[in-house]
Amino acid sequence: MTDHAARPASSQGLDPADRGLLSPVWASPDVAGETGDAAIVAAMLELEAAWAETLESAGLVEDGAGAAVREVVRAVVGGQATDDGGVAAQAGSAPSSVVEPRATTTAFDAGRLANAAQGGGNPVIPLVKALRAAVPDGPGRAAVHRGLTSQDVLDSALMLTAKRASVRIHADLAAAADALADLAAQHRTTPQVARTLAQHSLPSSFGLKAANWLQGVAHAERSVAALAFPVQCGGAAGTNASLVALGAEPHALAADWAHRAGLDAAVAPWQSFRGPVADLGHALAAVCSAAGHVANDVLLLSRPEIGELGEPVAEGRGVSSAMPQKQNPALSALIRSAALRAPADAMQLELAAALSEDERTGGAWHTEWPALRELLRLAAGSAAALRELAAGLRVFPDRMRANLELSGPLLVSERIMLELSDVAEGGRAGIQQAVDAALAASAAGPAEQARVLRKELRAVVREGDATRDASAEDLEARLDDLLDPARYQGDAAGIVDRILKNYEESGARRRRA
Questions:
Q1: Which DSSP letter does residue 461 get?
Q2: Any catalytic annotation for residue 356?
Q3: What is the per-residue pLDDT across 376-431, written as a single tens digit (0 to 9) for each?
Q4: Beta-carbon contacts of residue 416 (< 8 Å; ≥ 6 apart)
Q5: Cβ within 8 Å of residue 58, ≥6 positions away
């Protein structure tokens, strides 16, 4: 009888990779490739190679040890050395020089490592075993993983993976923010009704809405740009006792390892302090939230009965399997799906940090891995979709003006009360009486409401006090001004200007630097 449990999933005709079939917001080859199991394996191998080079540089292993490990890793990963000494995985690229590893690359198959990880509780243990077997007998084999512990490698590998993914996330956020800034400037005074608690409230501008979107996206962009990706180097119990026993200065060794791997140096080991992971989770969740804010508004405003916005039109985008006439807001729906899911993953990271016990936690640490990766994927997918949405968003000012006028003159009743109550017979009560009369005529439509409101205001407003002269014509001109919703946008244009100025001074200048 065949023992299927002992066979890797790939040999059973199964694809063990999660490519986003049920999570299409991140289902792109780029995002899946940068955060998939193969990328995590490559990052762990790259860190092991960089560590061997660090040990050799410090004189803690024999000459040639680092190169021996590096060559095997290069052969397995199929990458090329980066400027900082790390290895960047590049599918299909040929290494400059390859040493035939003693073990085949099947030993580093993610499915095989995942199955073997059940024995020790993490994938580093079987990976190190396979790497030692693959490195030729000599100084390199003795250098593999010397002085490290599994958490050092896995935490650092996740940080390396996150750093690489964050480059794409930041670039997409920056492009989306620039597009939103353009929309805010272009529609600085385009009239649009403000909605509070799902109801018309006051006149505003679409430029202000776009500027408020920009604030959230720019904040998320800054959060991602400010992230640190520290190396974790603490040894078995966070004391680096093995490195001291080897005669090394642990902090200097960790800093050199970080430099070679392309990570940030850490003040101290953080294996029981999970701040770096939680910070990363916060920033990624902020990306999803900021993108979700835009998506929520677009979903609402693109409804046919509102029709103020439309998603970019692209072949195959927004199609329905049953209704050929539909143009669904697919980008916004995908972004919103990520915004709804991200908080749970971010909370999982916080929960894991809160339940971290002793010098290495059991179980809580393990829950970080899938939560962090899912946040990376959701943020990357959201940022990419937001970039496309913001760059191609269709704006319909005529519909905005038409919807603004649906509430009729009562939309500016706040202004009428503020400016006329002091000069009206009965004061505020007199103005309220006029507004109530207009409300009673709401069934007849905005035009009839406007007629009734004008009639009632004429009856209670003393013309001379209201217009500074006794002219009825001046009163009519005054009412024309008061009842025009486009003339009651408050400081909307000024707020847009200040948001854009702040964005240019902080976001754009930092990006150029």
A1: B
A2: no
A3: 999 999 999 999 999 999 999 999 999 998 887 788 888 889 988 888 888 899 89
A4: 431, 434, 435, 457, 482, 483
A5: 248, 252, 253, 256
Distance (Å, rounded) from C-alpha 24 to C-alpha 1? 39
Distance CA 288, CA 120 (A): 34
Query: What is the number of helices (H) and of strands (E) in the chain?
Result: 21, 6
Quote the Cα angle for 58-62-63, to 5°: 85
Task: For the full predicted model, state whether its pTM sits above 0.90.
Answer: no
Question: What's the rounded Cα separation, in Å, for the pair 506 and 508?
Answer: 6
Instruction: Walk me through the domains of the chain, giving residue ranges and CATH numbers.
Output: 26-147 (1.10.275.10), 152-232+270-395+492-512 (1.20.200.10), 406-482 (no CATH)
Neighbouring CB atoms inside 10 A of 509's CB total 10
CA dist 482 and 466 (Å) reads 12
Backbone angles phi, psi at 295, to 5 degrees: -60, -40
C-alpha R_g of the chain: 31
| Residue ranges with strand state E in 347-404 | 394-395
Calculate the CA dihedral of residues 185, 313, 381, 89 and round it to 10 degrees.
-110
Question: Is the distance from CB of 89 to CB of 77 less than 8 angstroms?
Answer: yes
> Which residue out of 146, 360, 451, 458 is catalytically annotated?
360
Of 409, 428, 410, 426, nearest to 418 (Cα)? Answer: 428
CA distance 88 to 68: 18
- Owner of token pair 């964050």: 166
* Catalytic residue from among 93, 320, 394, 468: 320
Q: Which DSSP category does 507 fall into?
A: I
Question: Which tens digits make up the pLDDT trace of 345-390?
Answer: 999 999 999 998 888 888 999 999 999 999 999 999 999 999 999 9
Q: Alpha helices of 307-363 — where are they, by DSSP H? A: 330-354
Q: Does the annotation count 320 as an active-site position?
A: yes
> In the numeric block, which tokens belong to residue 274?
């999970």
pLDDT class of 313 with cuts at 50, 70, 90: confident
- CA atoms lying within 13 Å on the CB side of residue 157: 28
Q: In three state form, how does the secondary structure of 227-254 look? A: CCCECCCCCCCCCCHHHHHCCCCHHHHH
Distance of CA 8 to the CA centre of its chain: 34
- Whether residue 431 contacts residue 460, with contact meaning beta carbons closer than 8 Å, is answered with yes
Residue 473 burial (CB < 10 Å; 0-12/13-18/19+)?
exposed
